[in-house]
């Protein structure tokens, strides 16, 4: 890194400058024409903030509690695969930085360090104090014993929730990866959570099966084999959000996978009011996709999200300067969030309500849902 990063954008540029272009493309890319990738970010720019003043908010808190676990900021690290592609310490570096910031990290099932080792690194980074919760992201596997073994590994590691990604009946079509011939991890790296789960293939990316066979019955089955809170990641339709609640799911991650699965779906921010209305506050909704600024976080929380997730920014900061980079990234977002709260007249996340945002061209006649 040449200059001190002052924003997520700086990390993006720094990562692009240092990384092998094949990996830079893997991180930045999305499905097909990448229309949804762009839409996610653009939606935050379209929505306006309408602050309140003279609210006496000199004392502010960014704390949140989710499923009984406390975090010191409403920004969590969305699951991203293969951290060792961009940093030799991989997920260990990320976990230390998240722990230092008090932020929830969602470990990808496709991590290049085993979940137990990641959890241990987070605990050590907190030197006796309670680390923030670690969650585990899961792709249901056609072989139930494999899924069960993964759940057991996550549980034994002390993970506090399972994030089940349901938007991946097939792997998204990343044309950049195809063009670059990027299909697998380089020699020496593997998906450590999968080691010894299937005969003959030790930690191979190919072991992660995407399948279109899953139904709500599989969610019920998962509900029956674990006491951990279950969040579904990738539910976009309000009817599916209602179904999720009916099936006893504990939370939703409103995500379009950063535009990496089905292209041309709406920006997650645009869907948030409908999803929040569908779940009626019965379960928390975490939004990810395109969050790059403290103002973005505030907008999502104002529209009903309990927290937001960041995907690419973490990979960029990690690629730029490892653990230090991710620490700096989370500090920057914390600073941005705090000054946005100050300028909006808010003292904490509970003060972030729909009256703080305005949809300039999203009037009633546009057909968009306005809370
Ligand atoms: C490089 C990369 C790897 C990802 N790996 C996973 C994964 O293993 N599991 C998953 O559920 N989502 C994965 N995602 C999606 C993220 O969890 C998240 O939904 C998305 O990145 C959020 O959008 P943002 O990158 O604009 O913040 C990945 C995204 C990226 C960019
Ligand atoms: C099997 C790894 C999946 C990674 C992923 O979800 C993504 O790159 O978006």
Structure notes:
The chain has 371 residues and is α/β, with parallel strands linked by helices. It has a single domain (8-347), classed as Aldolase class I (TIM Barrel), CATH 3.20.20. It is built from twelve helices and twelve strands. It has helices spanning 8-18, 21-28, 35-46, 91-101, 115-125, 144-156, 175-180, 216-225, 238-246, 268-279, 294-302, 312-344, and strands at residues 48-49, 64-66, 69-71, 75-77, 105-107, 134-138, 161-165, 230-233, 251-254, 285-288, 307-310, 357-358. The protein has an eight-stranded parallel beta sheet with strand order 4-11-10-9-8-7-6-5. Helix 4 packs parallel to helix 12, helix 9 (238-246) crosses helix 10 (268-279) and helix 11 crosses helix 12. The termini are far apart. The model has no long low-confidence stretch (mean pLDDT 96). Residues 26-27, 40, 78-81, 108, 110, 137, 165, 233, 255, 257-258, 260, 288-291, 310-312, 315 line the site of flavin mononucleotide. Keywords: Flavoprotein, FMN, Oxidoreductase. FMN binds at residues 79-81, 108, 137, 165, 233, 255, 288-292, 311-312. It holds the Pfam family FMN_dh. Its cofactor is FMN.
